[in-house]
Amino acid sequence: MNEQNSIPPEIAGLAAGIMIGAMIMVIGRMLFGNGIIPTYTSNWIQSNYMPAVLVVGAFSSVFAVIWYLISLKWWRTFTEKEFSQARISWWLLFVLPFLSFIISLFIWGKDGNNNLETKALVFFSLILLLGMCSSYWLSTALSTPPNMRRVVPLVGLFPRFR
């Protein structure tokens, strides 16, 4: 495959992963907003949920784009000798989205002065985690050039990438 044909699918993969992460977070907002997942206060969505998903979504998306740019720089000359270095780079970029997830749980995982009920906290955590994983992991799995794709952990889950 020549290089002119390889970039658009990768950009589409990057965008798709970010959009799926955003959709997960929007669905979560609807679950909390419609009372399917109850909270103590009615303004929790605006004061806690929205800032948390914006921070996690932004960090995940920005670092997925950074990985994409790094992989574009690397992909033409990538060799198996560089696999470990590339994998470490991927994990280092993953640390900040994951930290944004953890910090968001501590800062915004409350309902007023109370902690969220267990059910609400579990769903809040799952929504943030799935959104983060989609926006970072899925985006990087879909946007990494083919000769580097194995650098992304668990990329073998996609049959087409094995």
The description of the largest β-sheet is: 2 strands, antiparallel
What is the CA-atom radius of gyration, in angstroms?
A: 18 Å
Order of helices and strands: HHHEEH
Q: Span between N and C termini?
A: 17 Å
Write down the overall mean pLDDT: 85
Shape: elongated
Helix proportion: over 70%
Uncertain segments: none
3D structure, described in words:
- This protein is mostly helical and 162 residues long.
- The protein is 70% helix and 2% strand.
- It contains four helices and two strands.
- It has a two-stranded antiparallel ribbon with strand order 1-2.
- The longest helix has 31 residues.
- The radius of gyration is 18 Å and the shape is elongated.
- The two termini are 17 Å apart.
Compact overview of the structure:
The chain has 162 residues and is an all-alpha fold. The protein is 70% helix and 2% strand. It has a two-stranded antiparallel sheet.
Strand and helix layout:
Elements: H1 3-33, H2 44-74, H3 83-108, E1 110-111, E2 114-115, H4 118-143
Antiparallel strand pairs: 1-2
Which features characterize this protein?
about 160 residues, mainly alpha, two-stranded antiparallel sheet, 4 helices, 2 strands, about 70% helix
